[in-house]
Specification:
Layout: E1 2-9, H1 15-27, E2 32-39, H2 47-58, E3 62-64, H3 77-89, E4 96-99, E5 104-106, H4 111-116, E6 125-126, H5 136-141, H6 143-153, E7 161-162, E8 168-171, H7 172-186, H8 202-214, H9 235-244, E9 249-251, H10 260-275
Parallel strand pairs: 1-2, 1-4, 2-3
Antiparallel strand pairs: 4-8, 5-9, 6-7
Helix pairs in contact: 3-7, 7-8, 9-10
Length: about 280
Amino acid sequence: MRLALLSPVHGTSIEHIARQLDNYRVFLAPFELRHYLHVSFGSNENFETDLTAFAAREGHDIVFTKRRRLTWRYCTANALSELINTAQSHPCDHDAVLIHTDADLIFSKDIKQSILSGLIHCGDKQFRIRTKWKWIERSLSDPRLQRFANLYFEGDFKKLRRGRICGCSMPWNIFEKFSKIYLSEFNDTYFESTIDTQWPLTEVSIPSILKIVMGEDYQFMPPLISAPKKKHITIRDISSALKKGTSFGLKKIARDTNSEAFQYLMQLQEQAAQEN
């Protein structure tokens, strides 16, 4: 299995990315991994150089996007455009794609079975106009979303879907069809006009486009990586996710590398490495 991993990254040092590369190698072995990375503006000027040196030394296969564009903590739409373009411009027989962020760490080898199943993981909630979602006004004011809904859903916003970018997985042939629509509809500079335009577009565009590709009756699986709402992750959170069997990684957990939860995840990683 050749797996393409697409990720927007940011940082003043490569420590968290290096940790993530090692983490993914362990839990996704023996998949052949290629990491496509978009480094955001504001990152350390030596970020790419340092990460390239680390990858060469440790044997990680990484590719940086051809260009860097503005991204925001809650909005990685521009980065996804560049990641798509870069992944498709590098001839390689990928079998599947995993989209994630630089805050995600895996804790279970079972993630491989979900990727091998060929099912699509992105979440599948209805887009609701009347909601307390903090981004609803900006999303409805986005002319691209209105045009997209008119073109593919007869202007019915209720047919749009909501999901997540972290832990989104799909077969490569589906990714190619998804990419064509995404770049056609959302690869522009709208978000760069003013800060008041920005919202997490990918949470709506990814599942909505995949619904077009797969058909209205196709049921998406949950994202492979969970995004806990609370600030501090506990060992119980990891144990609970392991028991449920639908999530194989967590966001935020590396924010505190001294926490018991992070140390527990490192123990799981060490155990998985010994089993490989």
